[in-house]
Amino acid sequence: MAALTTVRGSLPVLRRLVSMQCLHKFCSSKVLKAPFVCAPYSYSTTLLQQHRFFRTSYAAAGPILPFKLSDIGEGIMEVTVKEWYVKVGDRVSQFDSICEVQSDKASVTITSRYDGVIRKLYYDVDSIAFVGTPLVDIETDGGQAPEEDVMETPALSQEEHTHQHIRGHKTQATPAVRRLAMENNIKLSEVVGSGKDGRILKEDILNFIAKQTGAILPPSPFQEIQPPPPAPAAAAKPQEKKPPPSIPTPIAPRPVFTGKDRTEPLKGFQKAMVKTMTAALKIPHFGYKDEVDLTQLVRLRSELKGVAESRGVRLSYMPFFIKAASLGLLHFPVLNASVDEACQNITYKAAHNIGLAMDTPQGLLVPNVKNVQMLSVFEIAVELNRLQTSGASGQLGTADLTGGTFTLSNIGSIGGTYAKPVVLLPEVAIGALGKLQVLPRFNAKDEVVKAHIMNVSWSADHRIIDGATMCRFSNLWKSYLENPASMVLDLK
Amino acid sequence: MALVKKNSTLKEYFEDAWKAGIVLKSASTDVFQNLALEDWIHEHIDVQQRSALLMWRNSSAVVIGRHQNPWQECNLNLMRSMGIPLARRRSGGGTVFHDLGNINLTFFTSKKKYDRHRNLRVVTGALKDLRPDLDVSATDRFDIVLNGVYKISGTAAKLGRTAAYHHCTLLCSSDRSLLSSVLQTNCKGIKSNATPSVPSPVKNLQDEDPSLDPSAIMGAMASRYCAEFGFDSPVITVDPSVEQLMPGIQKMAADLQAWEWVYGRTPKFSICTSFMAEGANIGLDMDIKNGIVEKCAMDIPHHWLPPEVGKELCSALMGIRFCPSEVAAVVAALMRTASRAPDLAKKTQSLYENVVAVM
Predict the structure, then answer these.
(1) Tens of pLDDT along B213-233?
(2) CB under 8 Å to A193, separation ≥6 — which residues?
(3) Is pLDDT above 50 for A37?
(4) Region entry Disordered: which residue ranges (chain A) (predicted)?
(5) B124-141 per-residue burial string, b: 16 or more CB within 10 A, e: under 16
(6) Higher pLDDT, A19 or A361
(7) Phi-psi region of B216 (alpha: psi -120 to 50; beta: other; left: phi over 0)
(8) Minimal C-alpha gap between A14 and chain B (Å)
(9) ∠B193-B196-B202 over CA atoms, to 5°?
(10) Which candidate among A5, A18, A287, B152 keeps its CA 20 to 30 Å from the CA of A133?
(11) Which of A127, A339, A402 is most worth mutating to test chain B (most B CB atoms within 10 A of its CB)?
(12) Strongest mean pLDDT among A9-13, B3-7, B130-134, B251-255
């Protein structure tokens, strides 16, 4: 039993070693294009020794049987192999899918006839396979005879395990299931089959074992990370019943962590962001933070929300923040500028294309609303809705994502109060908005009142922007939001 | 509407009732839900002793076959702008355009009783029941042609271990101009071994005879099916969104909509194309496997743009999905650190936008 347990545990090793061997074979034969995952070549001698030990103990390796492509029907003689679901070295059970073939507009899933390990694939993808010729070679587990039509008659008459007590009636189970029962000393007749016609499936054996030992077996021997067997309650109880007097608390068994680190190269958007952020942090940033009292804005928005919805638009606070920023930029155009790489020339951008950091399936993207200086708050809300829908469905285009001149990041919608945002090139300023909190504040009459407070954190390029400019811009932006009526005076 | 035992699933209903045959009609016009319904019936209903017919229609959608290449088969840009979804079915065959003027019929049988010609005789028979002098016939490629020329139906099939299904379309009153514009690729230079579609001239049945509308045809199909297979079944309407009736169907519908299935299942292909950008002819060469860019090379005139720009773009595209929004996100990030000298910036932007347009 112990030997077989080791066998199970080292099957992933065998699989890799086997595929390594086969890779050597195939490099010379050039039969297959072989899109296999190449096994790493560096294996220590201990593993090879284990392999040798494995070979001698795994005496039950059965014959390698060719699995022929059976008749598809309609007199079809040849098919095109379209997709392989297995590769050499994979273990398959009876009825597992092996490949997908296509003939004359019909797509056929070919399932395995045997349990075993795939030893050879006879066809490449897109090659023609003939009915009646071998499709794959399967190294079966000992005792499986090549049956003609196993798919149609699940009850196999071959039986090599003589010490199964089958009381008079035939229990239906595949050879793999029978072997599993035998290894665990289970009588098939005692197991209730949940398959068709009372057939015993692998799950039934596993459930039977679980009930007996109270343990949950690992689902498959081929996973890299073995889930630690949870300390069975039955085992823990005896410990608790008689606590040793010197030790105050029972010691729980330490789970063994067999997880592995995973390294992968950075690609696509992540890779591009590395470059963007590296360049951005070369800019000397300074930060400026402040608190904004949005009590009046909250009231205004709740009044206007209904009107917007009647026009089919969801109104959040962002359109107000964006419009107020644009009004501020009219007075401080340096914040809507851009410098060249050598920092020799500054370009004052005419359009206010205000970007909004958005969390999408692709990552944190910053689409921008174009020409905010020409848009009303409602029009900004419409555009934001469009960008949000596109962002959520992964359909933002280059036009939406490029050309921004100033950015606002509403990180507060997820959480946080103060932030230290990084300027997004080629812009020179950015603002991060914290979450809207309800806090007590003193009003003009020295009374404590409920106020809706939001914190804003600005960052700017200190090479061309000074603290005073940022401060005045922030104060102006803040005054528009704290007293929304004043926005009406300056609206363009 | 048949009475269903409370809390029973569709499978239980049919097996309890020991019906020899069922005629079903889907209440949904969502292509993914209907494809999921087909999958669900194929996997769960025992067809060894019985058979089933499912009739369904979808609102505008393009459906490609299991092993096809969507970039090669349809105009993805046009579809995106019109909001027409793309679905990949599990059966083989070619690309079709579905809308409410097209009826889909799926014949479920055991693998032993799989017989496409017999099913198509039901279809032509039903049409002739409605209009006896209608010239419709099935070809040996399993198409149905009207007046010997116009294709009104295409076929595809899926065979599993013990069960099979054969489905076909039927053009009643489809939008033919939309059909032809959507089923034309906008991508040049694709080299692939994916199953190609065979285009044919098409015609709507309703153009031939205005009385042949979808509901009349579906009624005739149901009667003819029952007559051919020898049982009597009412047409039962099934709503694929009811999870309780068909446990697991919502997950099937979600799997059918996943990018990995719709685009990622495309057989390996390469694109070798060129485009004009700001007066220069740019060559683009990409290999795509499982929908992911495996190889990317660009031929950019050296005097037009510094070679590092092209190399950086290719490097950034490696390993990402061949998808316009993913590429747009990448190029937008690259734009931020691109040269800001006006002419170089313009060229870089044009290059990036054209690359996105290729997807």
Answers:
(1) 888 899 999 999 989 888 888
(2) A171, A172, A173, A199, A200, A201, A204
(3) no
(4) 218-262
(5) bbbbbbbbeebebebeee
(6) A361
(7) alpha
(8) 28
(9) 180
(10) A18
(11) A402
(12) B251-255
CATH class of B2-262: alpha beta
Mean pLDDT calculated for residue range B19-27: 86
Q: Does the active-site annotation cover A466? A: yes
Phi and psi at residue B287, to the nearest 5°: -110, 130
Let me know if residue A231 belongs to a domain.
Answer: no
* Among candidates A106, A268, A395 on the partner chain, residue whose Cβ is nearest the Cβ of B320: A268
H-only helix segments in A316-376:
318-331
A105 and B142 in contact by Cβ < 8 A?
yes
CATH number at residue A402: 3.30.559.10
Q: Which of A381, A230, A251 is nearest to A314 (CA)?
A: A381
Predicted ipTM of the assembly: 0.78
Please indicate if any CB of chain B lies within 8 Å of the CB of A71.
no
Smallest CA–CA distance, residue A94 to chain B, in Å, is: 11
Beta-carbon separation of B267 and A126 below 8 A: yes
Residues B195, B67: contact at Cβ < 8 Å? yes
Overall number of domains in chain A: 2
Which amino acid would we find at residue A60?
A
CATH topology of domain B269-358: Enolase-like; domain 1 (3.30.390)
Q: Give the separation between CA B39 and CA B167, rounded to whole angstroms.
A: 12
Let me know: does B304 contact B347? Beta carbons within 8 Å: yes
Q: Which residues of A touch B351 (CB under 8 A)?
A: none
pTM of this structure: 0.72
Alpha-carbon gap: A123 to the closest alpha carbon of chain B (Å): 15
HEC string of chain B? CCCCCCCCCHHHHHHHHCCCEEEEEECCCCHHHHHHHHHHHHHHCCCCCCEEEEEECCCCEEEECCCCCHHHHCCHHHHHHHCCCEEECCCCCCCEEECCCEEEEEEEEECCCCCHHHHHHHHHHHHHHHCCCCCEEECCCCCEEECCCEEEECEEEEECCCEEEEEEEEECCCCHHHHHHHCCCCCCCEEECCCCCCCCCECCHHHHCCCCCHHHHHHHHHHHHHHHHCCCCCEEEECCCCCCCCCCHHHHHHHHHCHHHHCCCCCCEEEEEEEEECCEEEEEEEEEECCEEEEEEEECCCCCCCHHHHHHHHHHHCCCECCHHHHHHHHHHHHHCCCCCHHHHHHHHHHHHHHHHHC
- Rounded to a whole number of angstroms, the CA Rg of chain B reads 24
Residue type, B196: P
Residues A451 and A302 in one domain: yes
Q: Would you place residue A197 in the very low, low, confident or very high pLDDT band (cuts 50, 70, 90)? A: low
- Cβ distance B130 to B215 under 8 Å? no
Instruction: Convert the pLDDT of each residue in B262-316 to its tens digit.
Output: 999 999 999 999 888 888 899 999 999 999 999 999 998 888 888 888 898 999 9
